[in-house]
Amino acid sequence: MRKFLLPLLALLFCCGVVVSTNAQPARQQAREAEWKNYALPKTDFMRRSDVDRTVQLRVPADWQQQGTTLSFTGPHSALLRVIIQKVPEGYPLDDYFSATVQTVRDLTSGADSIVTRRTQIQGADARELVIEGTNPEGEPTRSVSWVTIVGPKAFGFNLQVPLAYAAEIEPYFKATMQSVDVLCGVTMQEAGISRLVSVKVNESAQRRSGLPRSEPDGDQIQVA
Predict the structure, then answer these.
(1) Rounded to whole angstroms, how far apart are CA atoms 197 and 209?
(2) pLDDT, position 202
(3) CA distances from 189 to 39, 151, 181, 216, 217 (A)
(4) Reduced to 3 states, what is the DSSP secondary structure of residue 224?
(5) N or C: which end of the chain has fewer CB within 10 A?
(6) What percent of the chain has pLDDT over 70?
(7) Which burial class, exposed, middle or buried, applies to 102 when counting CB atoms under 10 A from its CB (0-12, 13-18, 19+)?
(8) CB atoms < 10 A from the CB of 28, how many?
(9) pTM summary value
(10) Which fold has domain 2-41+62-179?
């Protein structure tokens, strides 16, 4: 089971965050309230997708993309990354996420915190993993990851940011997560012609979030 988790764990801990796993219901409730209270920022966003067009999302226009990967750097050394993994068709999200959390317990130690909660990505069942710890320089750091499974692929969306700037930067992550559009693959229309089919598009959810609907790649939009 864990062979599907290693790339995601490498993403979560590449900054060397040291944590413990003492989550309590009160912390989960506090996290839920914190997330709900984040107001969407008024800024320009750019639509981005991976090279295989498996997932599309909107990222702040002034965040710098690292090559062709879905990896972006923002203010205060914030880092946003998306990782996509192949998993067996029908692989349960609860099993995948539980194994991830268990591996976190196996690999980490420290005196800070980890919080998990149920959530959704455009109507799809998802899980959130929030870790607070310290980086190798001793700076308090927060890592926020949202995980979901669609068909034969698992998707991990991760934000890492200095804890002192989490309240400033996480609203951008919230806007990005509300824009996510997971694509399942390619279906043939005619001989030699193909089109991408979205399995989790939820335009009503996008309208409720205040984000515009899809624009052509590279077009700039503004979240008001």
Answers:
(1) 22
(2) 42
(3) 41, 21, 21, 21, 22
(4) coil
(5) C
(6) 68
(7) middle
(8) 16
(9) 0.77
(10) Protein Transport Mog1p; Chain A (3.40.1000)
Q: Read out DSSP for 48-110?
A: EE-TT--EEEEEETTSEE-TTSSEEE-GGG-EEEEEEEE--TT--HHHHHHHHHHHHHHH---
- In contact, 80 and 142? CB cutoff 8 Å: no
CB-count exposure of residue 58 (10 Å: 0-12, 13-18, 19+): buried
- Determine the 3-state secondary structure of 206 from DSSP: helix
For the segment 94-113, what is each residue's pLDDT rounded down to a tens digit?
999 988 887 776 766 543 57
Q: How far apart are CA 216 and CA 204, in angstroms?
A: 19
Tell me the C-alpha distance between 222 and 52, whole Å: 25
Domain limits, the chain: 2-41+62-179
Q: State both tokens at 224.
A: 């008001």
Q: H helices of 164-211, where? A: 166-179, 203-209
145: left (phi over 0), alpha (psi -120 to 50) or beta: beta
Closest CA to 143 of 157, 125, 126: 157
Q: CA-based angle 165:170:172, to the nearest 5?
A: 120
